[in-house]
Amino acid sequence: MARIALGLALALVLMTSGVAVAAPTHTQGSITVVAPVPGAVVGGNGATVHIELALEGVDPSRLRVIVTRVGAHEHGRRNVTNAFTATATGATADLDVHALGAGITRLTARAGAAHATTFFDVEPGLDLTAAGRCDFLLPNRCLLPFPNDFYTVADPASPTGRRIHLDARSLPANSSGVHIDPTEWNRNDGFSPGQPIMLSFPGIDLAKTGAAPITDVGRSLRKDAPIVIVDAQSGKRWPYFAELDVDAPDDASRTLIIRPAVNFLEGHRYVVGLRDLEDGNGDAIAPSRAFEIYRDRLTTLSPVIERRRASMENVFAALHRARVGRHELTLAWDFTIASAQGIAGRMLHIRDDAFAALGTRVPTFTVDNVENNVSSRVYRRITGTFQVPLYLDRGGVSGSRFVYGADGLPQRQPHDYTAQYQCVIPPSAVNTPARFSLYGHGLLGSFDEVNSSIVLDMAVAHNTAYCGSNFIGLAEDDIGNAVSILQDLSKFPTLADRTQQGFLNFLFLGRVMKLANGFAANPAFQVAGKPLVDTSQLFYDGNSEGAIFGGALTAVAQDFTRSVLAEAGMNYSTLLQRSVDFDTYLMIFKPAYPDEYDRLVSSGLIEMLWDRGETNGYAQHLTTDPYPNTPAHTILLLGAVGDHQVAQVSLEVEARTIGARVHRPFVEPDRTYDVAPAWGIPTIEHYPFTGTAYFIWDTGSPLSPTTNSPPRAGHDPHDDTPRQPAVLDLKDQFWNGAITDVCNGGPCLGVPFP
User: Fold this and answer.
1) Entry pTM
2) pLDDT tens across 490-512, in order?
3) What CATH architecture does domain 2-122 belong to?
4) Which of 302, 491, 518, 675 is at 20 to 30 A from 499, Cα to Cα?
5) Any idea which architecture 351-722 has in CATH?
6) Residue 351 to residue 510: CA distance in whole angstroms
């Protein structure tokens, strides 16, 4: 305590009193300390501290220099005179940083009656040269740890009270030297609800450390867990799994990734603490000097460090309430999750604005082509267009951006967007009007996916007519823009903005389908003057991208309340590295961003914007706590064991986040690596069941890797689940209001489809 009290008192004197501590005393000559300047923090990026003295009218042979660590005992006082090279006008020395020791140091130089004293702060390994834009808690990567409230500023006008404040110089640069432009990120009032936590401890061994792996999420909540995440509002521990980036070139550069097992809550502040970390030899990993200063209450002379002390004390206090002692810690920090308004506010605004203008009218549509008896499974196929209010520039073409008004929200443009649709009607609709469902296509697909077997199987088996449009933003005509984004991630906002316009398009298509005086009143959708479709209810069915986007679409939908999301998942920051689909795009992404760290951290950055256009950003409101003027929704989640394209782990996070119940037995005992399969997801206790449900089908494919890499071995079961006869029955039951156990008391097993 004496060390702390003395250091604090000294720091207060140095920083607030105005005393010129380096001023020489002039008696028979003078000594002036030229370097380091008073109060300097030195030793951050070098092995030595340079000392320079100016001598005037003194005998250099009589020079005596003493350095003393303030607050240290007698052994902290050292005579370093012999290290100096002196001339008649000056003396210099380069003193070993580690020999000096860390902390506030007093230097006293004397030559006869002349003397000078200064104070400086020796902090080995603590480099503050970029402290305005890089968190100095971890010295080896500028942006880490991330997410981090260090990269926010106070904003009383935002729902969270924070605003992202990233500096382009701290963000990845492409091979042309262009850093990501943070302008759009800096609109956010927090980080993603599914934000991957990234940090760097070179050589860390997660097995020896005992960190919870992807196969044992429950371990993350143990009292002695080495990684602790705490909701600062509630004090609750948060579940997660930890992994090391398998794609890093070596252990020294391998980023530690901590992924939430259930999405963080909007607007909440979270505190992360790490303790008892070990390397591959079982040796303890030491904290950085910067963190040690805060943890051990060591006073410094740095205003930069001291300004942060109060917020760090809040971090320690939150961990203390969670029974984690500060002196156990190797690292701790906090971050704030974006608000519902910050994530979905743009989408909700364009929805409400567009539908307010529409009123009770049917959106304008055309029927451009009608094909009868297309096949034994398609009685009629109708293709046309419909008009949607536009909020993008450049007419809404691929690569366009929202046009913002003075209120900071997207502004409607003078001309509408012309969207395309295609509908397929099964033969059974001739006798009984077909159930009517929107359909969401797969990755970079288009509306004509309604003609695929995966759709027509359901159409024929259960008398369902489907209409699809393009999920613009990530549809077939966005391939060129996707390539451009991969070469310069500053362009990513174009994807997020256009995707939200795409959601609005789907909502307008749904309105045309839902109203009795819409499609159903047009001869193209009739036979003998009677509708081929039942407009009493509208549904949604999406596969792959159509499920990833479909959850977000459903969360803002007012015209339908029951959606099937198959081949489902969410959170592209988890999905991309775990999908074989991304292999093709890596051929473009890697040359543009050749450093694996840059690519990895970029996946976390873009999720902060992608949240505006995929389920991850809307999941908290999908089944409960609906948005204003929006009904609650019920979801059927469907997945496949070993899916090569949409990672099973992301689907499980989605199921936990939206409050789904899971069918058990989940899988056969030898068909999982998990200690507790589908951990944290409650079981469907009784059938019939009317709530949100999660089923996974096993068609025998190899299990997914436990690393952040895609499954590649064997058959890809991605499209197997929606084609199982039992799944078709399950979807039909779900849309009728209640499901039964179509798996007959066991795990859901199926056959692979080519």
Assistant:
1) 0.94
2) 999 999 999 999 999 999 999 99
3) Sandwich (2.60)
4) 518
5) 3-Layer(aba) Sandwich (3.40)
6) 13
